[in-house]
Amino acid sequence: MTKLVHDGVYTLITADEPISQGDILKNCPYLFQPTGNYRVNNDQTVDLASIEAKVGRIDYSMVLTNSCDLDNDGKVKYILLCPLVPLYTLLRIKRDNYYYNHLKDDLDEDSFIERLQGYEQHRYHLLPLSNVEGNNFETEPVFLDFGNIFVLRVNFVRRFALNDKSNEKRLTIYFSPDLTNPSDTLRLVITRYTNFLKRNIGIPGI
Predict the structure, then answer these.
(1) Which of 8, 48, 148, 181 could form a disulfide with 34 if both were Cys (CB 3.0 to 4.6 A apart)?
(2) Strand ranges (DSSP E) for the chain?
(3) What is the pTM of this model?
């Protein structure tokens, strides 16, 4: 691994490194197809399903597919990616009563933030701030959004990560500080994503 900087959680690596679980990619293509209703004002809503889907870009996305599967050529055809959402975006969504129905509650903003930071919102996982310069994780809290997982073909993601200028250097949380084992941060991410899936498919006792 070409280790450029390591801050105890994130490692900055170069584009020629293989894609691994925990890698954070910039500007991944994403097919936006809104669902539900958007409140224009107190008297009017718009059915978002009537809006045509379009391809956009996600500022940051994390690879969730297992590294062992990615290392085994041909084992998986698609990579599972999870968008990263900054705190200010979640607060805007909550204030505007956007199409995220799960954010419609009576909590004030401070209580809502406390729930997010305390992992009480199962859909979201707070990532640690980074000391690596040149990314948006230095000052603004960011959350993995398990409710908006998307997939892209493995070969496309590999080419994209290698050739896209914004990904010449990328962060990863795969490795522990000694660069030999998956980090505790990544283990927690995968555990919480698994628990989110269990809750959404209705496994008893979850």
Answers:
(1) 48
(2) 5-6, 11-14, 23-32, 37-41, 44-47, 54-63, 78-86, 124-127, 142-145, 150-153, 169-172
(3) 0.78
